[in-house]
């Protein structure tokens, strides 16, 4: 992969403008990562792709403003930071509060994005389509205001999108907020029966909650503003949900799972070196994502539970939670190599390592798809948002995990870890580890050449390219 500071060449006056896709993300790591992967795949298909977000100190961005990644295939991937107008400076401490960021971007980002779109046209590379992550409705508003077609990348599951769509458009009956958590939700086409307690949290969130407001705007935009919906899933995982939702939306493209597949085993870092010294399928990997923060008592129970398994563990504890960790946690796992606590790791790389036997996860959708694609059984410990729905699918639909009760006790965690590590057999005699390996094969096939997600990505490329061709012909 190569990078350069100079901008890519612009088209001559006699050449048609390139098909140019502008990717826009909210500045949250879990939103940025899948959109960047989509960008690389679109660029490899020959498109000119520009990625933008509002940079800040807490966001891991490998490319600087103005860089061009020319090592993505036939096209190019450019990076232009969203800045100017009334946007906060990258070092502004207010970026540490996600709710404040959402409100600020809703006010300040549309003007900044509209300016960026105008500058692309002035440089001879007019934007053919804006692809915005969900929960960034300001991006689609700016695209519409500048006359550019819009697409949404839904970074959660198609099942969750269908639940939100049916709820906010009153297409099905849902349990009230006060209903028993075990009450059934079984009227959504393409979805299995769910318990009320497994519904995504924003359904019953307060109306003034900023992320619920963003979601409402997103769902409303699906009827008219958005030309295409791209979903970070694959057909084999959610075929029925995709097909059923397609009856309501213009076009649904399942283009996931959206994570890097190249160089998955290359290089050695601190975590890889530690894992290399452990036996196959012996390590318990624990990570709760970039936003979930456990309380002190929860941290103590998780630490004690991991120690009681007598198994080596790798636990990702962010810097903002390090002071809640009981002393001596990293050395508390008996005689099997102890534990290792790190502030960050390349999660997909860890999950693919032969030493990892199970994954204790908060069930964010990125983590869910990474676990399935790595073939690793899971212990689910969801906290909020779509995580409870994802946990239900991992356990009840995919059959690759066990539920950790809330709040967890050390005994609960030990028992769940042992069940996942053994790959417990169900009544049909099939173990969760065997099923996990099956999902790994299906996910790999989906993104391989001529796989379902590969074909869906090319269908989107063809659709956007036809817009550019039509625009060029209309100008003759």
UniProtKB/TrEMBL annotation:
Keywords: Glycosyltransferase, Transferase. Signal peptide: none annotated. Its EC number is 2.4.1.-. The keyword ATP-binding does not apply. It is an enzyme of class 2 (transferase). Residues 1-19 have a biased composition (Pro residues). The keyword Transferase applies. InterPro entries: UDP_glucos_trans, UDP_glycos_trans_CS. Residues 1-20 are annotated as: Disordered. Belongs to the UDP-glycosyltransferase family. PANTHER family: GLUCOSYL/GLUCURONOSYL TRANSFERASES (PTHR11926), GLYCOSYLTRANSFERASE (PTHR11926:SF1320). This is Glycosyltransferase. It comes from Panicum hallii var. hallii.
């Amino acid at each position: 992969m190569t990078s350069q500071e100079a901008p890519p060449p612009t088209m001559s006056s006699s050449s048609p403008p390139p098909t140019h896709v502008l990717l826009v993300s909210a500045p949250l790591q879990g939103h940025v990562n899948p959109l960047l992967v989509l960008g690389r795949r679109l660029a490899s298909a020959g498109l000119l792709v520009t990625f933008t977000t509002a940079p800040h100190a807490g966001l891991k961005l490998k490319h600087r403003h103005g860089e061009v990644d020319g090592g993505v295939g036939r096209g190019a991937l450019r990076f232009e930071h969203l800045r100017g107008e009334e946007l906060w400076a990258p070092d502004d401490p207010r970026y540490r509060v996600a709710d404040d960021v959402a409100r600020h971007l809703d006010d300040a980002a549309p003007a900044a994005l509209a300016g960026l779109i105008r500058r692309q046209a002035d440089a001879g590379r007019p934007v053919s389509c804006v692809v915005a992550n969900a929960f960034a409705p300001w991006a689609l508003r700016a695209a519409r205001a500048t006359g550019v077609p819009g697409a949404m990348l839904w970074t959660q599951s198609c099942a969750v999108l269908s639940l939100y769509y049916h709820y906010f458009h009153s297409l099905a009956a849902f349990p009230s907020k006060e209903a028993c958590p075990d009450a059934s939700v079984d009227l959504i086409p393409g979805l299995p029966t769910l318990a009320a307690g497994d519904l995504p949290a924003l359904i019953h969130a307060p109306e003034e909650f900023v992320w619920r407001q963003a979601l409402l705007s997103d769902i409303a935009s699906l009827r008219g503003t958005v030309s295409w919906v791209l979903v970070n899933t694959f057909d084999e995982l959610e075929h029925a949900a995709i097909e059923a939702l397609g009856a309501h939306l213009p076009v649904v493209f399942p283009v996931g799972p959206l994570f890097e597949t190249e160089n998955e085993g290359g290089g050695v870092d601190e975590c890889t070196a530690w894992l290399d010294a452990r036996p196959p399928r012996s390590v318990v990997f624990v990570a709760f994502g970039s936003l979930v923060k456990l309380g002190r008592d929860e941290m103590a129970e998780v630490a004690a539970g991991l120690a009681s398994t007598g198994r080596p563990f790798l636990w990702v504890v962010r810097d903002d939670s390090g002071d809640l960790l009981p002393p001596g946690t990293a050395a508390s796992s008996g005689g099997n190599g102890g534990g290792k606590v790190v502030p960050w790791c390349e999660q997909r790389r860890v999950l693919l390592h032969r030493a990892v036997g199970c994954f204790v996860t908060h069930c964010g959708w990125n983590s869910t798809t990474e676990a399935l694609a790595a073939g690793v059984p899971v212990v689910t410990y969801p906290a909020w948002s779509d995580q409870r729905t994802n946990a239900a699918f991992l356990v009840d639909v995919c059959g690759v995990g066990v539920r950790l009760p809330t709040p967890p006790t050390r005994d609960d965690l030990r028992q769940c870890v042992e069940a996942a590590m053994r790959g417990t057999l169900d009544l049909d005699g099939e173990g969760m580890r065997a099923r996990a390996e099956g999902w790994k094969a299906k996910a790999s096939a989906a993104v391989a050449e001529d796989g379902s997600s590969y074909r869906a990505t090319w269908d989107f490329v063809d659709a956007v390219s036809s817009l550019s061709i039509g625009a060029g012909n209309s100008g003759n």
